[in-house]
Amino acid sequence: MVKNAELIFEILINQKKIMNILKPMKALVIVPALFCLGARAQTGAIALNQLGYYTYAPKIAVVVNGSSSNKFYIISADKKDTVFKSSLTSEIQSDYSSTKTKIADFSALQTTGNFNVYVPGTGISYPFTIFKNILHTVATGLAKGYYYQRVSMPLDEKYASKWHRPAGHPDTTVLVHPSAATDKRPTGTIISTPGGWYDAGDYNKYVVNSGISTGTLLSAYEDFSSYFDTLNTAIPESRNGLADILDEALYNVRWMLAMQDPYDGGVYNKCTNAAFDGMVMPGVTKLPRYVVAKGTAAALDFAAVMAQVARITKKFDKHLRGLSDSCLRAAEYAWQWALQNPNLAYDQDAINKHYEPKITTGGYGDRRFDDEWFWAASELFITTKSHKYYDTVMAGINVPFSIPSWASVHALGYYTLLRNEKNIPVNTPVDVAPLKQMLLAFADNLLQGGNKAFKTVMGQNKRDFIWGSNAVAANQGVALVNAYLISGDKKYIDATLTNIDYILGRNATGYCFVTGFGTKSTMHPHHRQSVSDGIDDPVPGLMAGGPNPGRQDHTVYPFTEPETAYNDNNGAYASNEIAINWNAPAVYIVNAVEALQYKVGYSKK
User: Fold this and answer.
1) Which residue among 188, 363, 392, 469 is least crowded, i.e. fewest CB within 10 A of its CB?
2) Is 568 an annotated catalytic residue?
């Protein structure tokens, strides 16, 4: 380590004051300079992963807008030592805002501890740590974020800390809306659909969005089961013999099962109020709850998830008392309903023209179903080995790869076929070699693109900055992890790590987008419980949507360019809402890198 005398010496050179210290009383000048450095406030003008870095992983910070220095220093947390120094890059103009940056690459620093980046003329960064398991806390925090979204059960202080609360909506007396009525379940029939997760900042539950969310969590378990089997997220079910991530997913799965009509196999689109609740705690309002119209997307997403659950939980039959068989029956029943209703879109506007009460909560209205057919068929085919799903799988096998969203789930089917390559029956062959080539080509394109000003994969083009842009970053990471799983090439995990760094602070806004983590993190998400619980800190472990120049909420944004259009305001739902489908890929990638840190050489045991 180099004492800070050398650092101050270089700073003063940059300030053209060297002649004043080349005198016998040099030490008397250095002492007050050290004091000034220690007192200097931290600045968000140095964007970095606010948690930290693995010991042997790439390490990058980004100096934003206006540094005249060409040097940077890594200093100890007590400001007494300089542990690393190097040169900044020349200035880079971002393609997505007026932001200009210089890159500080300190990957060569492999000393563990707590540090700051110092840039003369700019200041001292937020603190960070270099150590193994550096993402463990945020990995468990993101997974536990789902616990705080649970419906119909109290969150006890033992598990929820200061965010404990009553149960909220019991959903044991739910009305069949006229749009969902049948002869056997006419309008006003009372059914029970308890449990599940609140979807986002609101208090409703949606099957379509639950589909991709639950499927992504289940996929994380399938890909890294040994890791998740030992991960304790401190939920009520911890240490019950089942991985916590499975317990959490199953809490939502059991609600999804209640959303299937037992008389025909169809699946209701959502369980909801007629209109959104105000900014109040869950359960404060006592407005009627409804199950609303069945649809093809809901049925097929449901079928896919249930087939995946059936496959995963088969080995836990004694523990879960036949859940695997029940889920498989439900999946096949929903598939049969979809065959009879292959193109039934959820059209809320049309529903409201014909039925009362009008429903104005989230629609998740999808009008194209090729991707849902493919995902459901892939899950059912791998789980059952049945030929009756084979033709649908083969019909979708050559669709170009794209990252998934709630309305585009084709990639989930690809991931399932790839991870289960060895379980494909010989008599119904699926050649996954072209799928591997397709995914690797997609991943290589991600590596070649990205945001040059922040050195992240996120930022392939301005279309990355959409509603839920942070989920774009996370889902890019899922694709890259899967590219690593089929190739073994560490470059894909290095690339994944750039998007984790993006989510945790290395971005043009300077925010860590996961509540409860980092120095400057989202504090005012569009999330009813966080707004109304009387606690300054938001509910932790929830990822905000991220920069969105569309600004559909019509609030006043401090910046409006694509990569800076973020507003940490609870009214800014277009950039600052949370959602279960955004958290899921973040859970996947952060836990994936934690699971792989030793294999890829980021840490040593």
Assistant:
1) 188
2) yes
